[in-house]
Specification:
alpha+beta; GTP Cyclohydrolase I, domain 2; three-stranded mixed beta sheet; two-stranded antiparallel sheet; 2 helices; elongated
Length: 108
């Protein structure tokens, strides 16, 4: 990529950049190596059948067409079955797991 934009990958400031970039991409796309549904395994009985809603969960993802980041907010809601719920923080982890992978915005 550096060569494609006319840079010298051997220039002092760029030595090591390919490795740093690879590490950054692994982190940005870590959702590819996990099953976000695993976060929902921990559940407890709350005795409610009312809507559970978490709003404004910030996320970032990577456009699979341009390999550029995009950002947004997700709102997740569900109605508990049999009064069984999951922790609110788990919903944010599910969003992160699905967001951290290359995709188009419309699919996320």
């Amino acid at each position: 990529m550096l060569v494609a934009i006319g840079e010298d990958p051997e220039r002092e400031g760029l030595v090591g950049t390919p490795d740093r970039m690879a590490r950054a991409w692994r982190e940005m796309c870590k959702g590819l190596t996990e099953d976000p549904r695993e976060h929902l395994r921990t559940q407890f009985h709350a005795g409610t059948d009312e809507l559970v809603l978490v709003r404004d969960i910030t996320f970032f993802s990577v456009c699979e067409h341009h390999l550029l980041p995009f950002y947004g907010r997700a709102h997740v809601g569900y109605i508990p079955r049999g009064g069984v719920v999951t922790g609110l923080s788990k919903l944010a982890r599910v969003v992160e797991g699905y967001a951290r992978r290359p995709q188009v915005q419309e699919r996320l």
